[in-house]
């Protein structure tokens, strides 16, 4: 089974190379994905690489747990996803770049439009089976059948039918409806799992919830950056859109591999804290930067005639605000989500101030034991002192 997983990964890599090559053959033609994400050609590389991450994650999990169903869902999703991207790039090349220059371009492009739902459905199954590769309970089997039905309906739309029968687009609509319902049910299953989970399973689910939350929080920022890049012709903002898209695409399979393989599993609390701090700072500074560029560009355009000066001033403003905002964000996160540690730090700081002026050994010892009890909550604490000779 490991050999099969390796073959699938190699096939995914070959398809990713093909998809990227066809997308870059004509730098003047933009695909729908590229246009929707800010116009950067780098997006055409990011999406195949992101889908390839699914297959690589699957083979990593399968190397440790060959029969783990989440691993095979990732492998299948990666294979079909790369196939869809390769078909789309080939079809666009044969219909837009060199019309009728390659065989069956329109047919292949049509297949990519029909089969896009299949990898999404397979990923839905992977989420339903996460983290142990089994359903939460037999009651969730209807969700599996809904997802399988959505894949079958999506594939059935591509079947050739007589003209008298008419279009089969209603099959795709029904498949999308079933997939949406299955996805919502899968989200409910994760909540149910998390409420029942204890120990390592709870930490595994935290990793997945962490990446889903990141994706949800980055989406508004991505849309804002996309609007700014299109409306004000800011190429650096377009690069930001591309970077955010890459993070969202890659983060979910990576976190799933960490959770299932249990690599540094209990570091999730530290990761969440750092993400809350630097995520809040980055979002605030990003919004400040975009607003400053837009406002300064409008004010200085009659004088400078360009946007370089506005970008430079906005960059200096963001650099000056970084450290104060990071300190405030750290205090706010500790106070709200890590209250025990925040109180412990304040207790230790107060003890350090008192220690400077305290010369009585018995008083220092009693104060030290009190601080240890308040911060670490041990069952027993004592201080041993060497007798003077």
- From the alpha carbons, calculate the radius of gyration and give it in angstroms: 27 Å
The level of helicity is over 70%
> Spans of 5+ residues with little confidence (pLDDT < 50)?
32-39
Order of helices and strands: HHHHHHHHHHHHHH
Question: What distance separates the N and C termini?
Answer: 72 Å
The number of strands is 0
Furnish the topology, listing elements before pairings.
Elements: H1 2-24, H2 32-36, H3 43-64, H4 69-97, H5 105-115, H6 117-129, H7 141-156, H8 169-196, H9 199-232, H10 235-261, H11 268-304, H12 308-337, H13 339-357, H14 361-376
Helix pairs in contact: 1-3, 1-4, 3-4, 3-10, 4-5, 4-6, 6-7, 6-8, 7-8, 8-9, 9-10, 9-11, 11-12, 12-13, 13-14
Task: Give short descriptive properties of this protein.
389 residues
Please characterize this protein's 3D structure:
By secondary structure, this protein is mainly α. The protein has 3 domains: 2-198, no CATH class; 284-337, no CATH class; 338-389, no CATH class. Helix content is 80%, strand content 0%. It contains 14 helices and no strands. The longest helix is centred in the C-terminal third of the chain and has 37 residues, at 268-304.
In short:
The protein is an all-alpha fold and 389 residues long. The chain contains 14 helices and no strands.
């Amino acid at each position: 089974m490991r050999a099969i997983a390796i073959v699938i990964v190699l096939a995914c890599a070959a398809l990713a190379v093909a998809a990227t090559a066809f997308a870059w053959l004509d730098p003047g033609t933009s695909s729908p994905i590229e246009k929707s994400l800010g116009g950067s050609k780098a997006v055409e590389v990011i999406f195949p690489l992101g889908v390839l991450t699914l297959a690589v994650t699957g083979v990593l999990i399968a190397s440790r747990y060959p029969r783990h169903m989440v691993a095979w869902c990732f492998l299948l999703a990666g294979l079909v996803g790369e196939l869809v991207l390769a078909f789309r790039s080939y079809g666009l090349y044969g219909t837009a770049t060199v019309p009728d220059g390659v065989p069956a371009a329109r047919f292949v492009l049509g297949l990519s439009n029909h089969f896009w739902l299949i990898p999404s459905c397979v990923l839905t199954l992977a989420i339903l089976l996460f983290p142990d590769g089994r359903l939460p309970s037999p009651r969730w089997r209807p969700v599996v059948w809904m997802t399988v039905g959505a894949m079958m309906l999506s594939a059935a739309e591509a079947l050739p039918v007589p003209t008298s029968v008419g279009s089969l687009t209603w099959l795709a609509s029904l498949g999308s409806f079933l997939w949406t319902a299955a996805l919502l049910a899968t989200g409910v299953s994760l909540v149910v799992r998390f409420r029942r989970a204890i120990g390592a399973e709870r930490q595994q689910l935290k990793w997945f919830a962490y990446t889903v939350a990141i994706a949800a929080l980055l989406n508004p920022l991505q849309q804002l950056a996309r609007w700014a890049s299109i409306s004000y012709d800011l190429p650096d903002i377009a690069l930001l859109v591309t970077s955010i898209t890459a993070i969202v695409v890659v983060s979910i399979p990576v976190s799933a591999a960490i959770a299932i393989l249990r690599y540094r599993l209990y570091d999730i609390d530290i990761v969440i804290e750092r993400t809350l701090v630097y995520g809040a700072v980055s979002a605030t500074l990003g919004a400040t930067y975009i607003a400053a560029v837009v406002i300064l560009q409008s004010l200085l355009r009659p004088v400078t005639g360009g946007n370089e000066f506005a970008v430079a001033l906005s960059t200096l403003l963001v650099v000056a605000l970084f450290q104060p905002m990071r300190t405030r964000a750290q205090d706010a996160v500790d106070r709200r989500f890590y209250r025990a540690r925040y109180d412990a730090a304040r207790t230790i700081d107060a003890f350090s101030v008192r220690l400077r002026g305290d010369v009585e050994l018995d008083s220092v010892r009693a104060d030290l034991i009190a601080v240890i009890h308040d911060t670490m909550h041990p069952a027993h604490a004592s201080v041993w002192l060497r007798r003077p000779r």
